[in-house]
């Protein structure tokens, strides 16, 4: 008994057995309970740490993915054109409402575009979104029109409306192989309107490509005619600043003016069979 007392007295008041020693003792019920609690707490802490690391990895992964998308040229606010005719009409009306913010809903309805106004090729259409979609689409209008319409000066079968003179030049190069007749450039930069009026009056043309302001002026004064027109393409190409012709301050008023003041009234004439198409 004295020996046991001595062993107990030899221990300091602040002496504490570590967990390994307690677990090996095997004869302390309270100690076993404490071990289980400590073990569970350690395990839970480890799980929380692992979960935190996983969440951090996910966040980093998302940021990396976003950066990768931007690096590939895909913009989060990129403009897209739907294939469906009804959706194209809705998109057009959306931006027209923005251009004519001061008019009433009733007035907007009177000039709104409908699915029936959207062009659909009589023959099989080119693949939507393909690199040469515009050229192939133009072919469907020009080839069909040759057998039905008399060639007239200043009266194209295809009219393409672009946001800038540089874009006009680019598309004219692509569209030249579509027709043997002239493909005209209609924009104001370095070209007087009187020169374009003279060219239109003396030139048989199947395709004309131009900017909204110059096209509207030529249509209004009569040098550019719509009696042979079958397809009007609104080129929704995005420039380096991600701008599109339907939403640019210096183009949208004239663009929607072409529709409201010229094309929409002319579409009521049974002799005219043109339709409009948005394309990129």
TrEMBL record:
Annotated organism of origin: Coemansia thaxteri
UniProt-listed SUPFAM superfamilies: P-loop containing nucleoside triphosphate hydrolases
Region called Disordered, residue ranges: 1-82
Coiled-coil region: none
Record-linked InterPro entries: Cms1, P-loop_NTPase
Pfam families: CMS1 (PF14617)
Organism superkingdom: Eukaryota
Listed name of the protein: Protein CMS1
Recorded GO CC terms: 90S preribosome; nucleus
């Amino acid at each position: 008994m004295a020996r046991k007392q001595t062993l107990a007295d030899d221990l300091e008041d602040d002496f504490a057995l570590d967990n390994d020693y307690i677990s090996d003792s095997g004869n302390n019920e309270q100690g076993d309970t404490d071990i289980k609690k400590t073990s569970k707490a350690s395990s839970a802490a480890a799980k929380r740490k692992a979960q935190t690391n996983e969440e951090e990895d996910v966040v980093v992964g998302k940021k990396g993915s976003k950066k990768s998308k931007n690096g590939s040229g895909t913009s989060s606010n990129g403009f897209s054109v739907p294939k469906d005719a009804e959706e194209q009409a809705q998109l057009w009306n959306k931006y027209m409402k923005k251009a004519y913010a001061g008019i009433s809903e009733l007035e907007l309805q009177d000039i709104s575009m409908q699915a029936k106004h959207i062009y659909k090729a009589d023959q099989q259409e080119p693949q939507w979104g393909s690199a040469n979609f515009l050229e192939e689409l133009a072919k469907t209008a020009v080839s069909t029109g040759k057998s039905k319409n008399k060639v007239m000066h200043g009266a194209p079968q295809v009219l393409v409306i672009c946001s800038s003179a540089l874009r006009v030049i680019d598309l004219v190069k692509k569209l030249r192989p579509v027709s043997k007749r002239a493909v005209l450039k209609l924009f104001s930069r370095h070209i007087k309107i009187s020169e374009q009026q003279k060219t239109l009056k003396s030139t048989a043309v199947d395709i004309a490509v131009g900017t909204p302001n110059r096209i509207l002026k030529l249509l209004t004064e009569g040098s550019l005619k719509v009696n042979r027109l079958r397809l009007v393409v609104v080129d929704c190409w995005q420039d380096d600043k991600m701008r599109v012709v339907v939403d640019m301050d210096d183009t949208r008023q004239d663009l929607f003016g072409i529709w409201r003041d010229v094309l929409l009234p002319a579409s009521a004439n049974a002799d005219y069979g043109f339709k409009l198409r948005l394309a990129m």
